[in-house]
Structure formats: structure tokens, C-alpha cells
Amino acid sequence: MGNAVKWGVLGVAKIATEKVIPAMQRGEVSRIHAIASRDAGRAHAAAAKLGIPKAYGSYEALLADPEIEAIYNPLPNELHVPWTEKALAAGKHVLCEKPIALDADESRQLIGARDRSGKLLAEAFMVRFHPQWLRAREIARSGEIGEIGAIQTMFAYRLVDPTNIRNRPPGGGGLYDIGCYAIATARYIFGAEPIRLAAALDIDPRFGTDRLASAVIEFPGGRHLTFSAGTQLAGHQRVTIAGSEGRIELPIPFNAPIDRPTRITVDSGIDLVGSGARSEEFATCDQYTLQGDAFSRAIRGEGVWEFPIEDAVANMKVIDACFRAARSGRWEDV
Fold first, then answer.
1. Whether pLDDT at 2 is above 90
2. pLDDT level of residue 111 (50, 70, 90 thresholds)
3. SS3 string of the chain?
């Protein structure tokens, strides 16, 4: 890994220590070189457990390290923009967890910060690097299932811990945490930006965050995304991409397992019992590894990064419109 990019991680968030860091450590061109926490003890403990060479007791100290080339930012949602701006100002490339900000106006600040720094900046939607999504988009674009008219997405888990950051304002709730995936992947498959939407949110009275977010989102050409994102429902995920000549089913679209192959189903729809269905299997992989290496290769000039920060701003505009529609009870323009 002589040409590997040296990464630093801001914070010891569970997603970082349990998923992203181990995955990136298995990458071909990514090396986790440092980790920081506001609690030096936690930083050193995480570094020791994960075999990371350096640990810092502040985010500022990590950003000041001249060896660090890129930053992974998994901090709470309300800290994404301020620490991403600081990392860019320190001359680091940044891969920031989703959602990139709390609203589109806040996310737009990052365009200028990126331009001033000249560094690569992106939102970490790892699913777009998994072979099942690359293949689903390829099939959708090929015309095999005809004109794509509708995408239906269900994403749910059950989390009722009041201390968990996902259940705490200002950045918690299902729309921010998992509804964003439904929006991003529909934009990815349709290759377009939505026009208008209607949405409903059920707010947990204890937490003050949405525990169920649902929306109907209209794209150009009369195409629709419908989704539900629930944080207090039994765990379930599924995406259906429906076309005029068939459909694609992704049974585990977002948290694809890393210990077994993944499958999608392509069905011509000739009947309701699956006579026209076939399955495609994808070798075991880790989408976080693939994402990290894609970003590192783009830093090295060995590949093109498809999703600039403007893509994240576009996704935030849809999330903003969902919040507006839930408040107004009317269709809202995106």
C-alpha cells in the first residue's frame, strides 16, 4: 500500500469503529492512519483496538497532522458542516457521512469551502458503490424492464433508546437517517431530480424526532418514488424498481451483508408467481471498502468521483421539501 491515502477519522462513532474503519483497513489504497476524540482516552482505546497508528485528544490536533491527507467525518449530523469546513480549510479531502447537513442552505456552504480548498469533498452514500446497485442501474438504463415508472422503498429498524443520537434533535429522526437513502437511490436510478412531493411525519412525543417518515415524490415524466422510513418498526428493507416490461427487486438494498453473497431479482412480470423471474448473485464484498477505495483513487487521480458535493445539496433539497410538506399538508415543490 505504498501509494495508499492516509486517512484520519473524526470521532469514535459506532458506524466508524464497527463498520467503516475495519472496512477501509481492508482496502487496496486506503489506510486509516489516525483517529481523534474529544476524550483522549477513547481515542487511544479505539486506536489500540483497531490497530490505528495515531490517536489524538482533539479534532484540531488531527487536522493539524501533515501526514493526514483525507478525513472521514462520522460526527453527529449537526457537526457535519462545521468540521467538514475546518477539515477542508486544513487542506484535507473529506468524505462526510450522510446527511451532509441539516438543510440545503447549510449544505451549500460546503461548495464554497470545497472550491477554496481545491480538495475532494463528498457525501458517504456507500450503497452507490455496491455491485447490486451498479447492476440495478445498468439494467434500468438498458431498457430490459422497459420505461421505469415507479420505485417503492421500505427501510425500517427499531431503536427506542432515548440517549441514542438518532433519537435526539436537531439531527435525529428517520428522514435524516434512512429516508435520505430512499431519495438518493431513486435519484440514482431515475437519473433526474424530483419536481414536487407530498409527505407525512409521525413525531415521537418523547424524543421530538420523526419515527416514521413517508412520501410520494414526483419525478419528470410522471415517475414516482414512494417510501417509508421507520425507526420504531421491525427491521426490514426492500426496494422495487418497476418498469413497463418488468421489475427489479433488491431484498437487502442498504445494509448489504459482508459475510455472504447478495442477490437481486429481475422479473418480466408475465405472472404473479415468478415464472419470469431470474436472480443475479454478487460475490461477497463490503460496500464501505469499495467506497473508501473509490475516494482514495480519485484523490490519486486514478479514477473519477461521480458524486460531487452538489449531489448532496440536491438530496438535501428533497429532504427539506419533505419537512415542508409534512408541516403544510400540501404538495411542495422541491
1. no
2. very high
3. CCCCEEEEEECCCHHHHHHHHHHHHCCCCEEEEEEECCCHHHHHHHHHHHCCCEEECCHHHHHCCCCCCEEEECCCHHHHHHHHHHHHHCCCEEEEECCCCCCHHHHHHHHHHHHHHCCCEEEECHHHHCHHHHHHHHHHHHCCCCCEEEEEEEEEEECCCCCCHHHCCCCCCHHHHHHHHHHHHHHHHHCCCCCEEEEEEEECCCCCCEEEEEEEEEECCCEEEEEEEECEEEEEEEEEEEECCEEEEECCCCCCCCCCCEEEEEECCCCCCCCCEEEEEECCCCHHHHHHHHHHHHHCCCCCCCCCHHHHHHHHHHHHHHHHHHHHCCCEEC
State how far the Cα of 76 lies from the Cα of 55, in Å rounded to an integer: 20
* Structural domains for the chain: 5-124 (3.40.50.720), 128-282+316-333 (3.30.360.10)
Rounded mean pLDDT of the chain? 97
Query: Per residue in 209-223, pLDDT tens?
Result: 999 999 999 999 999
pLDDT band at 329 (very low <50, low <70, confident <90, very high): very high
Overall average pLDDT of the 282-298 stretch = 98
Alpha carbons 181 and 192: distance in angstroms, whole number: 15
CA atoms of 64 and 54, how far apart (whole Å) = 13
pLDDT tens readout for residues 146-168: 999 999 999 999 999 999 999 99
pLDDT score, position 324 = 98
What is the rounded CA–CA span in Å between residue 122 and residue 58?
23
